[in-house]
Design brief:
homodimer; 106 residues; alpha+beta; 3-stranded antiparallel β-sheet; elongated; DNA-binding
DNA sequence: TTGACATGCAACCAAATGGTTGCATATTAA
DNA sequence: TTAATATGCAACCATTTGGTTGCATGTCAA
């Protein structure tokens, strides 16, 4: 589960919308997810495949339907491992910015 | 400062590496940033422009050099406004996943 | 003032991306 | 069994993306 795949998956607004939709109602089928979207089913399928590859969505075949479940773990890992690093330097970076702005407009 | 620009900016590993570099040493010039990168200066310039557009990096012209400063605010906002939403549904989503796996492999 | 250095701009290119259409397959229900 | 439904696969296309090269501009230092 590469972090790169997660970042790339999150880069597209349609895919974030799909995650939102699953966040609102988990376990939706492909067709259910398509109803909110303004594109063909095949386009949605491709987006879901990318989300699956990033391990952000897990699926289960249930007869002729396919249920989609949100996996919150990768998002959580990004929050902890990646964003956390910047949080640790946040005050320092902000004071750098402040100093810069003060020098810029005296 | 659209959140979409931030997500797209973060999607590229080179740009995340640039943010890492600025996190390690803030205020680097273009040439300094280029030294760590395995591509031409012009390519780095383009990446930095995207980071600037997402407001993740702010610059200051200092004579013939250009200093680059990390702006942690957009990352912080993503953490709070976007990731927070999924955090709130995290336990629910995880139990959904658990149930799904139990049904799948009995 | 002149040469070296730091950056900017623009054209160009290959590959990836996001979308489409058309058809195939598999499952359910009448 | 057959028709409708849910999804899968593949070819195709336009646009975006990430990179290059070549040259221009602006600033510092000898």
């Amino acid at each position: 589960m590469s972090m790169d795949a997660v970042f790339r998956a999150l880069a597209d607004p349609t895919r974030r919308q799909l995650l939102d939709s699953l966040c609102a109602r988990n376990g939706q089928t492909l067709n259910a997810l398509c109803e909110h979207m303004d594109m063909t089913r095949q386009a949605v399928t491709k987006h879901l495949a990318i989300l699956e590859e990033a391990n952000l969505v897990t699926t289960m075949r249930r007869g002729r339907e396919k249920e989609h479940y949100l996996n919150p773990v990768p998002i959580n890992e990004i929050a902890e491992r990646w964003i956390g690093k910047f949080e640790r330097h946040r005050l320092k970076a902000l004071s750098d910015l402040k100093q810069r702005l003060e020098r810029e407009e005296p």
